[in-house]
């Protein structure tokens, strides 16, 4: 018998403290029952729901070493996933910024090359005029 089984067998949960009549309650309606019977059934259903919530809210037994490792691995995997997701988001943001900057620089470079070409043509024309005059 392992530790968890012993703990589960010896620990008292809220479900163990319930009266024995709780398990035998039936929510089936008897044909021909009056309004009082309907209210009794409704109270029984409320008690059953309360019992279910007590059982669901009971504290789990302390985790074993293997379970601790599994939980730690899950937590680490989750943080790694979130870190990777954030990194990918940051890289996409940087990519779009750099693509925009690259387009701006290409446009500026093209404009400067056109200015240089026009200035070269103008300089050649002025030199030709200067040579023609002399």
Automatic annotation (TrEMBL):
Region (Disordered) location: 1-43
Compositionally biased tracts (Basic and acidic residues): 30-43
Keyword vocabulary terms for this entry: Coiled coil
Cross-referenced Pfam families: bZIP_1
Molecular function GO labels: DNA-binding transcription factor activity
Compositional bias ranges of the Polar residues kind: 1-13
Domain called BZIP: residue spans: 61-125
Coiled coil: 88-122
Keyword Coiled coil annotated: yes
UniProt cross-references to SUPFAM superfamilies, sorted A to Z: Leucine zipper domain
Name of protein: BZIP domain-containing protein
Species, as recorded: Corethron hystrix
């Amino acid at each position: 018998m392992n530790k968890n089984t012993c703990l589960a067998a010896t620990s008292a949960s809220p479900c163990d403290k319930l009266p024995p009549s709780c398990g035998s309650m039936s929510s089936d309606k008897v044909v021909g029952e009056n309004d009082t019977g309907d209210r009794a059934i409704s109270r029984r259903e409320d008690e059953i729901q309360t019992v279910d919530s007590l059982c669901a809210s009971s504290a789990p037994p302390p985790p074993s070493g293997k379970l601790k490792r599994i939980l730690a691995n899950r937590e680490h995997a989750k943080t790694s996933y979130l870190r990777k997701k954030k990194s990918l988001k940051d890289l996409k943001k940087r990519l779009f910024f750099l693509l925009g900057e690259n387009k701006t620089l290409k446009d500026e470079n093209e404009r400067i090359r056109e200015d240089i070409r026009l200035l070269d043509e103008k300089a050649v024309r002025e030199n030709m005029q200067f040579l023609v005059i002399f």
